[in-house]
Design brief:
heterodimer, A: alpha/beta, GMP Synthetase, Chain A, domain 3, 2 domains, 9-stranded mixed β-sheet, B: alpha+beta, 3 domains, 5-stranded antiparallel β-sheet, 17 helices, 12 strands, 44% helix
């Protein structure tokens, strides 16, 4: 009896070991995916490029810096009928198992975004348990091959360069700031559509004089830059068109994500107001049984730079500036609204959710025709910009001494 | 065995040291000796003693006569170097042999009574009726006085062991607090506690344990603070011990602890008298063992193992912060390497990208799997630690240089281990050193290894399973009636003042309820002087 009991418990214990280690992965067998790009391949296929970190190049063993002369990443491309198929094909050439938790950037090329449905392209990323949805999603107007091999000395990889720019979006504006999670939510939601930042690689203003190389001088860098600009507007999963930088700012106002500065015309030049924070409240009203949208934007700013003619000592000095800024905001938002709603018939602002939340019954009756009605949707915008301080001085430079 | 004795100090040079054993009997059992009484014939008594003592070179037999009692033959027997011979001379030999003549005879009384009441200058005398008693006293350093014609001998307490003076605590040093530590002498040790608690209620009961070693064990407690049932239980467990020798308190600890198979310490041990005094004040019992500076105290709880006396002497904010840190150190010492292994080999998604990149970079070129790397490094650090303890102090420095600096540095540069793993293992080691009781650190370091294997096999599931097993075990432990995981489970709200935090002394008005039982009130609450109050 005792023997049987012992044998049974031993068998139970040993059974535990049969399942052991089944999903064990040593770190060095993993290829850390930094960026992932989807573009149009041959014969209607999808071409997937993975930017994989080269941990050999970034290792700091014994205090010796990164290994010189080796790139910190390597790009691998393969084509397939689906994203997953392409990734399977990639395994023929990648020596390591791709590990997606380090993914920071998902790029879709403009042509593929116009052609294929985003819902189809993102399916793999939505299902994978490794992918973090705080990776950024952008649409590239330049060829992926140019983007993923861009020289970025300040960042480890081109992908992390884009990520770093995205992270400090509150300093600029001009482009949509969209993590993967927002895109996935956007394509899944009924009525509304996602946006994505536009990305383009341009020639830098720095040009090396022809004799420089001959004189063995360190060449000015970089020759090209990755620029984030504008917003890609989707409609029913496909890229519908672009918002320019002004319109993108309008979009960011409504999303409450606008950063950077407001340029207000004053005197014979411009005054720049730096944004501290802004907030947008979107509400639904009803006019004749049809929904109407009311957007109120509150922003707090500080004076960053004046045209050197205005003196900011009295409250009235500020009032004028604030009204001028408010008009700029309205102009930017108006431009975005008309381009997206009327131009692309795409609800990138998420008005449909507001209607859905405020009046679910009404939403049921109008949801089928929502996108067709978008051009006629009445939207009123109210902007309140507050200038809190003029910085260290209240007088222009000319009057100081 | 001849009955011939010369007067004066004799050493049996013809004994077994030089050859033939005096007696075929190999040993004498105690119950046997108890049946042999002290007889009237001095010569017969001495002959028996010589027979039993055998060849020992250090037994001194000295015959003399008491002048006052008309030259009554007497003898003293003692073990050389265990008694103070100057005292023997001053308080026994001189009064009996010479000074007695100066006193004048008190009148016809029993010689034993005359000797004890008028002549002996020894403070402590014990009457002996059989040889078992006689040898107990003799072997513990008493002088035995035997008188012709008496059925009783006297044991004179003139002990003078070779001993170390009271030194500073080396194992449990403190910045603030008393420096003195226990020694190997039990009398010194008990007096170190007595001088801290000057109450007649401080009781020190003595027991003799070990059939060969006859080690004195003292059970100390404060009546009125201790639960009488606890004392009874301790004494019951002690008297059950049937072992040949108690050489160190570790023997006792293993013989009386509640769960003999647990790796966790179930009795506290310390060499600090102030810790014992504090334990007694909380209604605990202390166990002194002769021959070791390590004194046991009980019952003990998990929280006691991560507390030090200095917590109660230093500022309470600081003490609380350190305690919280120690609590983290406790779990870090157990689980940090296994957590690292689990996360690195199974749950890479959990690691923030930047950290993971640097870990991946450092793992590059390491030939071993993470778990092997960890086990190797753990084994190396344990070797270093053990070598550092056992080696002479002079060589110890070389160990730390070769081991820590050279080995550690070169292992990393040679890409045998990753720097991150060195950090993890070193942190876990530091954490185990941070625990104030050395044996707790040992327990944790040992438990680390099975946890590492479990983490390597099943990732975080394995680690959690292992930790749950440990927690379950700790929750099931009891130390002399007190729950090991108290005051958390069972929960005792007032006990929380002395766990993660150390409440200021004016706020700790109660003793631990689960230990002191009835006698919980330590001080009256709310007596503190405040502005606007007249006290």
């Amino acid at each position: 009896m005792l023997f049987r009991l012992l044998a049974l418990s031993l068998a139970l214990v040993l059974m535990l070991f049969t399942g052991g280690c089944w999903d064990q992965r040593e770190v060095e067998t993993l290829g850390l995916v930094d960026g992932m790009a989807l573009e149009r391949g041959a014969h209607g296929q999808i071409k997937v490029t993975l930017q994989i970190l080269n941990s050999r190049a970034i290792s700091h063993s014994a205090g010796a810096g990164p290994v010189q002369g080796i790139k910190a990443y390597q790009n691998f491309s393969a084509q397939g009928q689906t994203v997953d198929h392409a990734l399977t094909m990639l395994n023929r050439i990648i020596p390591r198992r791709p590990f997606y938790s380090s993914l920071r950037l998902v790029v879709v090329s403009e042509d593929l975004a116009r052609e294929r449905d985003l819902r189809e392209l993102l399916d793999f990323l939505t299902r994978s348990r490794e992918v973090r949805r705080n990776a950024w999603f952008v649409v590239s107007r330049s060829p992926i091959s140019r983007l993923f091999d861009e020289n970025t000395p300040l960042s480890m990889t081109p992908s992390s360069q884009v990520e770093a720019i995205m992270h400090k979006s509150e300093l600029s504006g001009f482009y949509a700031v969209t993590p993967l999670s927002d895109v996935i939510k956007g394509v899944a939601a009924q009525g509304s559509s996602p946006v994505a930042a536009g990305l383009v690689v341009i020639r830098s203003a720095f040009q090396a004089p022809p004799d420089m190389e001959a004189r063995h001088v360190m060449l000015p860098e970089p020759f090209q830059s990755i620029v984030l600009s504008g917003a890609a507007v989707f409609r029913e999963g496909h890229l519908a068109g672009w918002l320019n930088e002004e319109e993108s700012n309008g979009l960011l106002w409504v999303q409450g994500k606008r950063g950077g500065a407001i340029e207000v015309p004053t005197g014979n030049s411009m005054t720049s107001l730096n944004l501290l924070h802004s907030r947008a409240a979107v509400k639904m009203g009803k006019t004749g049984g049809q929904p109407s949208i009311f957007v109120r934007i509150d922003a707090e700013t500080v004076v960053g730079e004046t045209d050197s003619t205005i003196t900011l000592t009295k409250d009235t000095d500020y009032t004028e500036l604030e009204q001028g800024a408010g008009r700029i905001v309205q102009k930017e938002v108006g431009a975005a609204l008309s381009k997206a709603l009327a131009g692309y018939r795409s609800d990138i602002f998420g008005f449909s959710q507001v209607v859905h939340r405020s009046d679910p019954k009404l939403w049921k009756t109008i949801k089928d025709t929502w996108s067709d009605q978008l051009p006629q949707l009445p939207v009123s915008v109210e902007a309140h910009v507050k200038v809190t301080t003029s910085g260290l001085t209240s007088k222009p430079l000319l009057d100081l001494h | 065995m001849s009955g011939f004795f010369r007067f004066g100090k004799t050493r049996d040079k013809e004994g077994p040291v030089s050859g033939s054993p005096p007696e075929e009997r190999p040993d004498f059992r105690e119950d046997e000796l108890a049946r042999v009484p002290v007889v009237r014939d001095l010569d017969q008594n001495l002959a028996r003693l010589r027979e039993i003592i055998g060849a020992s070179y250090d037994a001194v037999f000295r015959r003399f006569r008491v002048a006052l009692l008309d030259g009554l033959p007497c003898a003293i027997i003692f073990l050389d170097n265990m008694v103070n011979t100057a005292d023997v001379q001053d308080t026994v030999l001189r009064p009996l042999m010479f000074e007695s003549t100066l006193a004048g005879h008190p009148g016809g009384r029993d010689p034993l009574q005359v000797i004890r009441d008028y002549l002996l200058g020894v403070p402590e005398t014990m009457a002996i009726r059989n040889l078992a008693e006689l040898f107990t006293y003799l072997m513990s350093g008493c002088v035995i006085l035997m008188i012709q014609g008496e059925e009783m001998a006297l044991a004179l307490s003139l002990k003078a062991y070779p001993q170390r003076p009271v030194g500073t605590s080396e194992i449990e040093p403190a910045v603030r607090g008393p420096r003195e530590a226990f020694t190997e002498n039990i009398a010194v040790n008990t007096s170190l506690v007595r001088k801290r608690l000057k109450t007649p209620n401080l009781t020190a009961e003595s027991l003799t344990l070990g059939t060969v070693s006859r080690t004195t064990v003292v059970v100390m407690y404060v009546r009125g603070l201790v639960d009488p049932k606890l004392v009874a239980e301790v004494k019951k467990r002690l008297t059950r011990i049937k072992i040949d020798a108690i050489l160190e308190s570790g023997y006792l600890e293993e013989l009386i602890q509640d769960n003999p198979y647990s790796p966790f310490p179930q009795l506290g041990n310390t060499e600090r008298p102030d810790r014992i005094a504090a334990a007694l004040l909380e209604g605990r019992v202390a166990l002194f063992t002769d021959g070791t500076p390590t004194v046991l105290w009980l019952p003990v709880r998990f929280t006691d193992l991560i507390q030090v006396p200095e917590d109660y002497y230093q500022n309470y904010y600081f003490a609380s912060a350190i305690r919280i840190l120690r609590f983290f150190a406790f779990w870090m010492a157990i689980a940090l390497p296994s957590f690292y292994i689990a996360v690195i080999t199974y749950h890479q998604e959990m690691i923030p990208t930047r950290i993971f990149e640097s870990i991946a970079a450092s793992r590059e070129g390491i030939p071993f799997p993470t778990v092997v790397e960890a086990l190797l490094l753990e084994a190396a650090t344990e070797m270093l630690r053990e070598a550092g303890i056992r080696l002479p102090v002079l060589v110890g420095q070389a160990v730390s240089i070769v081991g820590a600096l050279i080995l550690g540095q070169v292992a990393v540069t040679a890409s045998l281990v990753s720097p991150q793993m060195v950090i993890v293992v070193a942190l876990a080691l530091m954490a185990s050193f941070m625990l104030p009781t050395y044996n707790t650190g040992l327990t944790l370091r040992l438990l680390r290894f099975p946890l590492m294997i479990m983490a390597a096999l099943w990732g975080l599931f394995g680690l959690m399973g292992g930790l749950f097993l440990i927690l379950m075990h700790m929750l099931s432990l009891r130390s002399f009636g007190a729950a090991y995981y108290g005051p958390f489970a069972p929960f005792e709200p007032s006990g929380m003042k002395d766990t993660f935090v150390r409440a200021p002394w004016w706020a700790m008005t109660l003793r631990p309820r689960q230990i002191a039982k009835e006698n919980v009130r330590r001080q009256q609450p709310d007596w503190l002087a405040r502005p606007g109050r007249d006290n």
